[in-house]
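The authors assume throughout that readers already know how a fold can be written as discrete tokens. For illustration, here is how one protein appears when written out as sequence plus structure tokens:
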Amino acid sequence: MSSASQFGSLVHPSGLLIASKTISVAAIGIFSGLAISYNALIMPAIRKVSVGSALSVWADTYNVGQHVQVSMIVTSIITGAYVYRKTENAFFLVPPLMMASIIPYTLTLLLPINKTLLSIRSKGGNNVEGTRVQELFVKWDTLHFVRTIVSSTAFVLSLYGAFSGKTKIF
């Protein structure tokens, strides 16, 4: 099959629908996997090193992760909305809405902590603030766990909707 005919099958309405379903599920899955990695790997590891090192690692992962996570949320919303519009399958509406709910949650509860941690890091993250930094890391990790649960639930729902053939959640 030539590249032109492969592309033609992708832009065909049924090909576009399949691609959109795949991208929607993948975007939610990538977000969920990244969220899990923060709670299971990154945060426990940075609590075992010096405050200065912990702040550097956290800031580096935060600066990269925020771009990936925002793009995955936006991608899931756009592709999920398209699939829902074409199929009326609620499993492609509810999970992207769950992902969208992460945005105000993050801006309200996590952004102030992020700004505080970045500010402490910019000032050198001295040992005087070590206890405060550790407390902020624990609070951040706990609040981030909510995003992990929401995104993982959205991922399971989107997978179920993609493979079950069901279109109604309730």
Remarks:
- The mean pLDDT is 90.
